[in-house]
User: What shape does this take?
Amino acid sequence: MKVRKAVFPVAGFGTRFLPATKAQPKEMFPIVDKPAIQYAVEEVVAAGIEAVIMVTGRGKDAIENHFDRSVELEQVLIAQGKEDLLEEVRRISELAAFCYVRQKAPLGLGHAVLVARDLVGEEPFAILLVDDLIDAPVPAIQQVLEVFNRYHASVLAVCPVSREEMGSYGIIEGRPVAEGVYRVTDLVEKPSPEEAPSNLGIVGRYVLTPQVFEELEQTPSDAKGEIQLTNGLKSLLRRQAVYACEIKGRRYDTGSKLGFLQATVELALKRSDIGKAFREYLKELDLDAGASETGGRGD
Assistant: This one.
């Protein structure tokens, strides 16, 4: 069955970026000149997904406005003869069919997915976490979809994580069934390095069967009062097969300050319009830094 819908859980407060996120969504922070969320939407569109379901919360109106038409802005661009920018802003609103639903309280990723249930219906669907920006020749969600189409079962994106990072991820246990593909046998949410069954952490791309909704409804809240998607998937394992796909590409955690800066710098360097000049600037900056450490340039 074709996967037609993608769920974007974007209701979080973005506390890692306070105070910047006090009044604006972190998903709208620009990576060069494009909001982080637009990279993810373009990823699903490139993979043939037609509908985008945004699970939003209070203070997230900027996301909806970004993917809507802006007639006033278009009129200004027409008057100024800026046809290239006009085409770009119109293209954004035409990327996909967008719909929005509110998560009224921060009750976890699993709860956010449940909020989208009526809009998803009884069909397989994708989930994308915007904090994970994945730069890859083949879109990350397309890689996951290819495994889903092969096995007709839920598929999780994974990548190797260090021992120090394991406490921030759901970690899979599984047996290899193909190159970079695993049949999942267990999932552990944020284990210590000693308890982790592997070094493969779940990252923000999923294609799931609709049966996950039933499991999430039965999943108890954790100590924080949140429903964790990983716990729902662990229950799903008892009913049907779940696979993991090791993603090929460069992943950035744009929800962290360092990851956000890394993505901005590395994607800027790839740009045909500014990449060369920016690279030269970084070279000069490195020389300046070295000179300051030794007390001057010596010229």
Summary: The first helix runs from residue 36 to 46.
